[in-house]
Specification:
Layout lengths: L1 H11 L10 H16 L6 E2 L2 E2 L6 H13 L4 H27 L1 H12 L2 H6 L6 H20 L4 H18 L2 H5 L1 H11 L2 H7 L2 H22 L5 H12 L9 H9 L11 H9 L2 H18 L13 H18 L2 H29 L1 H4 L1 H9 L7 E4 L4 H7 L3 E4 L1 H7 L5 E5 L13 E5 L9 E5 L8
Parallel strand pairs: 3-4, 3-5
Antiparallel strand pairs: 1-2, 5-7, 6-7
Helix pairs in contact: 1-4, 1-18, 2-3, 2-21, 3-4, 4-5, 4-7, 4-17, 5-17, 5-18, 7-8, 8-12, 10-11, 10-16, 16-17, 20-21
Length: 460
Amino acid sequence: MALAALLALLCFWGLGDVPLLSTNEARRAVSVREMYASGEWLLPRMNGEPYLTKPPLFNWLALLPTSLLGGASEWAVRLPSAVLGLLLLLGTYLLGARMGGRAAGYFACLFLAANAGFSLFARRAEIEMTLAAFCGFAVISAWYYLFHDPRKRWSRLSHACLGCALLTKGPVALLLVTLPIGVYYLVTRDRRAKALLGDGPGWLLALGIGGWWYCWVMATQGLTIWQATLQEDIVKKIDTAAGEPWFAYLGYLAGDFFPYWLVVLVRPGVWLKTARSNPQLILLGCVAFVPLALFSGFDEKHAKYLLPIYPALSVLLAWQANRLLAVAAGWRRRLLVMTPTVMLCAYVLFYSVAEVRLRQHRIAALPLIEQTLDRYRQQALYSLGEPDMRLVYYANRRVSPLSVEQVHALAASEDLLFVNGPLPTSLEYLAPCVRQRFRPYLRQNKEAVLIQMAGECYRD
């Protein structure tokens, strides 16, 4: 019960107390709010424009609490991540316990919960936790089918979860679930794995759940609508001039799983020998390391891209920790048991007490922006250059981007202009029109200004 309480606190305590912390969070929140306001749930929009970069499953999940509350809020758009994160922790515990007993389940759950990356995205309005959860559920269902119950219901459940993952972030889900299971089959020649991969009705279910929305968009919007998405979301991530080195993900994983990965340094040869002779560990190894090897070859790297492999890594580490627990005694045993629990308590305290203070420079201006712009409900709002989606969310209206030349053309109006940073020299004549300064704005020592063009302050 104490562990369950800590996990609930980690995912839910103060979930809506902190304003949106990232551009990605704001993108999801803005699209959810606009879908709710328009009643159009099939075609996501962001700042008034169609937004098809990501499929809409996360948006639909966030629309449920938004509809119940009568409007979007930080709490409502973060709730799906918190709920799915908690369910994934439960699934990871059950998987670890079925493989190695209650202690292994305990370690697996704690290694995942008391993890910098996992705990962060369990509290964010971003799609990563939704993708990780449905990929994790697909793998757990497949594991149950392969090793415990060969009835087709588990294969179909795995494919249904895969379909939900496809509807969360597209075909990348196949690289996180299907490809590792395929590699597992090539290594072990497991007949059940072959049956799982060749389950025709299961694939119809997966593609039906994950593909119908894409078909609807193509039928209603045309094929060309995907061109920009393919270029931005696939091509550039695979091949970009500013790519990180191939080993960058190893550093991310070492940071997120510290200090738990240290258990592999204790008699690693024995651990690897055991893993190679255990089909269950081979499957989890494929789920963890096949995507790691593949994504390491892509130029664009972010730690969050590997979040779906974190449950498998947690169980693998828990297997080793459980082996060490059987032979440890005294302070070594206490250290092994208490370290993840203390780390989990530290993460709970961080998100409940320290986060809002440490992130103050990123969020301080956002409530002030909301209050200030509420006084100018009748004026249109523009931004110099593309607006940050956090501005769009807290402005609670569409924000149209303008170039310097376009600002000149509108300078005699009474509309509002938001400038992120100091005024350019060519717009200094608008300095008397500044209505509010926001400092810090998103970064330490950064400033933004709100200008009401024309009015009494400006004369041509």
